[in-house]
Amino acid sequence: MSNKFVWTNEYSVNVAEIDEQHKEFINIINSLLELEERESFTDEEALMKVSKLGDYAFYHLATEEDLFVKTGYKDAPEHVSVHDMFREKAKDFGDWIRDKNVDKKEVLKEIAEFTGDWLMKHILIMDKKYTEFFNEKGVK
Ligand SMILES: [Fe+2]
Ligand SMILES: [Fe+2]
Fold first, then answer.
1. pTM for this structure?
2. How far, in Å, is the centroid of ligand 1 from the Cα of 63?
3. How far is the CA of 100 from the centre of ligand 1 (A)?
4. Which domain holds residue 75?
5. Which domain CATH number covers 91?
6. If you measure from the C-alpha of residue 47 to the centroid of ligand 2, how many angstroms do you get, rounded to a whole number?
7. 108 is a domain residue
8. pLDDT for 74-122, tens place per residue?
9. Does residue 21 sit within a domain?
10. Please, are residues 57 and 88 in contact by the beta-carbon 8 Å criterion?
11. In total, how many domains does the chain have?
């Protein structure tokens, strides 16, 4: 039984759209752990979950980066380079889960835990840095 990731107020960046996306992102990560805990699941189900997670991750990072451009956020280059490191890793998730020689349960768990650990830390360390600037620009 894996521990699920939980969004609490501590994770709020005080921008409604972004908080909603973080919550949805966490739900998707947890849904990989729920699948992994099931008695059985098909390769297709595993692939669908991983694709959904990858797509949502890319969508979320792009949403933040669009806001950086719209608001002229000066710390964007550093923040985007941290997103890029995650993208570099996440682009291989699909190949990893399609691999016939891996234990799908293990891979689902590793992808979910890697992504969840990354996201929770990233929100606290990087995302929360833009709160004040975004709020000043009327993004809240
Ligand atoms: Fe974020
Ligand atoms: Fe971010």
1. 0.96
2. 9
3. 32
4. 14-136
5. 1.20.120.50
6. 25
7. yes
8. 999 999 999 999 999 999 999 999 999 999 999 999 999 999 999 999 9
9. yes
10. no
11. 1
Structure tokens at 89: 């890793």
Distance 76 CA to ligand 2 centre (A): 9
Q: At what angle do helices 104-125 and 43-71 cross, to 10 degrees?
A: 20
- Cα 135 to Cα 10, 11, 39: the distances in Å are 17, 16, 46
Within-domain flag for 100: yes
Q: Between the CA of residue 85 and those of 81, 90, 122, 137, what are the distances in Å?
A: 6, 9, 12, 28
How far is 36 from 39, CA to CA, in rounded Å? 8
| The pair of three-digit structure tokens given for residue 91, joined into one six-digit string | 């682009």
107, 96 Cβ separation under 8 angstroms: yes
| Amino acid, single-letter form, for residue 139 | V
Amino acid at 140: K
